[in-house]
Automatic annotation (TrEMBL):
Cofactor: pyridoxal 5'-phosphate
Protein name (Swiss-Prot/TrEMBL): Methionine aminotransferase
Entry superkingdom: Bacteria
CDD domains (UniProt xref): AAT_like
Residue ranges annotated for the Aminotransferase class I/classII large domain, each copy included: 25-376
Family membership: Belongs to the class-I pyridoxal-phosphate-dependent aminotransferase family.
Species in which this protein is naturally found: Alkalimonas amylolytica
SUPFAM superfamilies listed in its UniProt record: PLP-dependent transferases
NCBIfam families: PRK09082.1 (NF006569)
GO MF, one example: pyridoxal phosphate binding
Length: 379
């Protein structure tokens, strides 16, 4: 069959989580918490569902949730966005990303993205008829070379995809990064897709910045986030997109026919959570910084070399002192022989550089982290 996505197989997350489950390994591969969410969120979910709020939500999301998202943006970034015209609730960030690409990318358009790149970007751009231009970022700091970005822009360039805090490198854009992005986007009349699903996990007192923090960039950006990450409920698949009204009109044309609307009781529950427990969001960075520090301290005597993690709930580790296997094989070996699963970094690159890096997810109970670290220290 002539596939529209000939290069796509099952995702590394599905592969590694399945292997971890078959091997009964500690799963630090796919990014999801092994602890529960706030009980308030579950009570609210049950309560709204029992009240009978089980039919289609409005296409753009329930109004109270959009109002709460606007309030959150005002708190975090001191920016005003219109809940009616500029916010749409989606079935996870994944749906928002897909709709954004479908709405913006036309056949023949070029889209600049940075490798290692989250796995859903390239296939979604391809389905929209776009061509991905991959720029490689390398360890240890995964810095964007903005001159290289400028040199990659041509008449066909439509969109730049950014992701800060970055999965899988855990690096966070500085204000200077955002400003250089803003300059390029505005100078060349491009658009920006800013994937900010880890926006509330920025460590060590770094400023929490968004494409929304920069007025001229915000005017040409679609910003995507996810309540799955923020409230420890990845399986709820609830996210949203923020964009200027004109772009949002186009985004909604697609969203309307991809899912139409998202799970109604969860929208009410998350709106209640945002209104009544804002500390769950503002405390998230400290919550995950503590987990990062716990994991890093527990690995202090291991032969892994840990890279600095500025944000997200991922920790990169260089294993070259332990093995010279390629990273995919190393991760399979680690899962099968030592019962700890991780994600190889090479799969996030179109042309993987010569490096031996794997990604651990530390969104886990302390006991899980310590158990895994004990094994890893013996390698
Ligand atoms: N973007 C990035 C960078 C992610 O890590 C993830 C989640 N793994 C997503 C998007 C998708 O988020 P969601 O689960 O809300 O679809
Ligand atoms: N975002 C998660 C990760 O990076 C995985 C999501 C998925 O399985 N598609 O691990």
């Amino acid at each position: 069959f002539p596939s529209k996505l000939p290069d796509v197989g099952s995702s590394i997350f599905s592969q590694m989580s399945q292997l971890a489950s078959e091997q009964q390994a500690i799963n630090l591969s796919q990014g999801f918490p092994d602890f529960g969410c706030d009980p308030f969120l579950l009570q609210q979910l049950a309560a709204f569902s029992q009240q009978g709020l089980n039919q289609y939500a409005p296409m753009a999301g329930i109004v109270p949730l959009r109002q709460q998202i606007a309030a959150l943006i005002a708190r975090c970034y001191q920016q005003r966005v219109c809940p009616e015209q500029q916010i749409t609730v989606t079935s996870g960030a994944t749906e928002a990303l897909f709709c954004a690409f479908q709405a913006l990318v036309r056949p023949g358009d070029e889209v600049i993205l940075f490798d290692p790149a989250y796995d859903s970007y390239a296939p979604a751009v391809q389905l929209a008829g776009g061509r991905c231009v991959h720029l490689a970022l390398t360890a240890p700091d995964f810095k964007v070379d903005w001159q290289q970005v400028a040199d990659s822009i041509n008449r066909n360039t439509r969109l730049i995809i950014v992701n800060s805090p970055h999965n899988p490198s855990s690096q966070v854009f500085t204000a200077a990064d955002w400003q250089q992005l803003e300059t390029l986007v505005c100078q060349h009349g491009l658009y920006c897709l800013s994937d900010e699903v880890y926006e509330h996990m920025v460590f060590d007192g770094r400023p929490q910045l968004s494409a929304l923090s920069f007025t001229e960039l915000a005017a040409r950006s679609l910003v995507v986030s996810s309540f799955g990450k923020t409230f420890h409920v990845t399986g709820w698949k609830l996210g949203y997109c923020v964009a200027p009204a004109l772009l949002m009109t186009e985004f909604r044309k697609v969203h309307q026919y991809v899912t139409f609307s998202s799970f109604t009781p969860a929208q009410f529950a998350v709106a209640a959570m945002l209104e009544q427990h804002p500390e769950q969001v503002s405390g998230l960075a400290a919550f995950y910084q503590q987990k990062r520090d716990c994991f890093v301290a527990a690995l202090a005597t291991s032969r892994f070399q840990l890279l600095p993690a500025q944000g997200t709930y991922f920790q990169l580790a260089d294993y070259s002192a332990i093995s010279d296997q390629p990273d995919v094989e190393f991760c399979r070996w680690l899962t099968i022989e030592h019962k700890v699963a991780a994600i190889p970094l090479s799969v996030f690159y179109r042309q993987p550089p010569a490096q031996r890096l794997i990604r651990f997810c530390f969104a886990k109970n302390e006991q899980t982290l310590l158990q895994a670290a004990e094994v890893l220290c013996r390698l």
